[in-house]
């Protein structure tokens, strides 16, 4: 049997979803190289199908990379990919796939378009709600957390027990060498700043973090905001820039690793998440985490984070004050972080996907 992987994520800007897809593909390839995969998949032919506008190509040994079609975006999914993958099994890891392909597993990362429609424009909301409903009828839906499994089961009218959970991990940062020069370039002192990493979309709730840092009234301890932005977005969502806010823009993984390692704490104020990877990334570098009580975030972080209500800027300020008073991370805190990190592995998630495929394999 031919097993195709939807590679449209390689034509998209890198966010958590695209990172997830890339890491799972690399972990599947590693399993194929090592021979550590279910025997029922032994004779399968693997290919990663990518559109013509790919930004990068993964370095794979066993999975063949094929550039196909002339279209882009959803049209490529529904036409070019559907045609190239016809007659075989398809894996789509980044929230979408051809709705008419009957032998497909699609990873939908959250139910945000249903639960928080206020976060999206009407066109985006309409397209993705319709696509999710169609995929729920034609494909097997998988997701990244128990919270998202229940959410998707509810909104798509599926049995939660039939939705595999294939979690994220933070291991993609494990071999990253920190570039501590970024502290000097941003004018930062070690362990004298709070860190936010992410987009400025509504669910990330950055407004609450900025209110908290302003009410903290510690201009010597700024909030560093890492992620894509422009002045109009900043103006619309955050108000005017102040001395205790540093907009770092997009940074390299090495620069981000350094900021994680030297921050007073990482702040994660999300209103809604399907999983919540950045807190795990912070824990990888021994950075204390202050996170919202969003269900998926608590599922990910467990007892290794300090929590606050995402709508309560004063509660976040109090957490920040407590972290500054506590100082460096303690051995017991670090142990809790390491225990949480051990729960998540790209390879284990890829192996679970392979096992699921083997159970459904038709010779």
TrEMBL record:
Superkingdom per UniProt: Bacteria
Keyword presence, rRNA processing: no
Gene3D superfamilies named in the record: Glycogen Phosphorylase B
PANTHER family associated with the record: GLYCOSYLTRANSFERASE WBBK-RELATED
Keyword vocabulary terms for this entry: Transferase
Protein name, as recorded: Glycosyltransferase family 1 protein
GO MF entry, a single one: glycosyltransferase activity
Biological process annotations from GO: lipopolysaccharide biosynthetic process
